[in-house]
Amino acid sequence: MRAALKPGQGPLDYARRPWIIALFAAVLVFLYAPIASLIAFSFNVDKSGVWHGFTFLNYVKAWHNDQVFYALINSITIALISTFFSTIFGAMTALTLWRFRFPMKHVYENFVALPIVVPEICMGISLSMFFSYTGMMSAVRDWIWPLNLINIIFAHIAFSFPFVAVVVRSRLVGFNRQLEEASKDLGASELQTFINVLVPFMMPALVAGALLAFTLSLDDFVITLFSSGPGSVTFPVKIYGMVKRGVDMQINAASTVLIVITLAATLLAMKMLGPGKPAH
Amino acid sequence: MSEPIISIRNVTKEFSGGVKAVDNVSIDIEQNEFFALLGPSGCGKTTLLRMISGLETPTSGQIFIGGEDMAFTPPNLRPTNMVFQSYAVFPHMTVEQNVAYGLKVTGVAPDEIKRRVAEALEMVKLSHLAARKPDQMSGGQRQRVALARALVKRPKVLLLDEPLSALDAKLRDDMRLELTRLQETVGITFIIVTHDQDEALSMASRIAVMNKGGVAQIATPADLYEQPKTKFVADFIGKVNLLDAAILRQNTKTISCNTKVLGKFDIDTDKTCGSEATIAIRPEKLKLTVKKPIGAKLVCKPAIIKDVAYYGDTSHVIADVDGVMLEVNVQNDSRTGGAGVERGQKIFVSFNPHDALVLTE
To answer: ipTM of the assembly?
Structure first.
């Protein structure tokens, strides 16, 4: 006999089956145990990897470690600036692809998505060569902060704006063109329609895209390494350098701060967007 | 008569690929009319409406609105407003913001916006829902928002694109009355696009029946129904039995014709016919009787009932006359028995030739 449904159980009530609950739990542990242990050990008094007692000392040390501190400030600065520009460029790209018909549109559309799939190492090398040949690599070295980070910012915009474009583009597919027509019919100009109708509709995608760009920029290592000169170290690059010299709980502390920042940004964005925004 | 509020002159709209959605259409629409563009899907009625609103531009021709050629004026500068088929209510704005939008973007003073929005919401009976978001409202309510949003602009012409198609049957009847009431209250021209002949007949003061991009006939609802010019119009507006007939004789006001099914009879007409024509008889003009009816002028044939469809107030009966199916509508005016006929019954079908119509196109 085939397995029968229990009374009151629908055919899609998979979540009530014990083995599925167990699987969910296992996935959660697999995903979050490393992060949880990283955070836990940031409060450890010892660097041996064995729990020796609770302390905030690692945070204090990291805060007073100028190199770690400036690397973190660099990373956040780069992330904020590159997010700002990649959100604008990404949104504009998405709008262009959605709104207009032009020759070779398909080719262009695919090329925009290319940086998403191109191996980071290739992009890193090409950017590195670009900055060297143009003299930007050495030129920016003496510029004042944050202009000395401009190469990294350019690189980050280049690889993160396609992500924004893809997110915004897929949201625009669900846009009811009659909303735009209604706005114009009611007397709004092209610009007024854009600001009052299209931008509010795109907002969830803009926020999601911006968040994506922000986190991508914040933890990028490969491309950053290739496009940064000697003076400009970002947080992931700095941590890599420190790990090479041995484990230090300061790294955990600084990483925890980074997690808290991204988490806070995500929560803020979710709160801003509100629950269940309809797609039309 | 005063100058028409909208005058469409030889308008043609050709889409890429050479398809003519609207083909050399000319229509005059008077002040305060409730005008309907009626036709099957793909007949060009919506395209025509969109050209009046400015959301499309014609390939050739002129569109005068209030005496001015506005064929190429952008929609935001036209004295027309549209109620869209999908309502197109802005989802991120409250009802009040939706209605205020058209005034705000054109720089109307805040005091006046407030007053006019309140007035418009009152008019569509939505004042109590002013703070709601569209996703918390029913389809009918959203449509009222769309209506208020358009009317608050005080347009010279209100355009409605299939306004009732998304509502359920009961709501559709209410909204139909509501729209007629609104049109009388605000006293502006309404142009409605619909594929539903009942909608057009019951609401409009005049109807343009469109077919394949052209206008088949423009007339009042009663004239369209009783005096259709072509077979297409007769068939599209209501139901009709169409019979091929040979014309035997034509006098000044009458013709004698011979139909295969119903035999020879004379009909009054002022049309000039060739040797052939089509005779149109509405189902309710045909009578069913058990005995052969008495009346010198009546045309009468024996028939067999093939099918009876019960609709509550009426029954639609299919009567087989020598292999040709005729549709007959019977009023169910007694509480017992419905149409009073049953399938397979032998019966007489009769009609007065006065009630039949000669169609040559």
So the answer is: 0.83
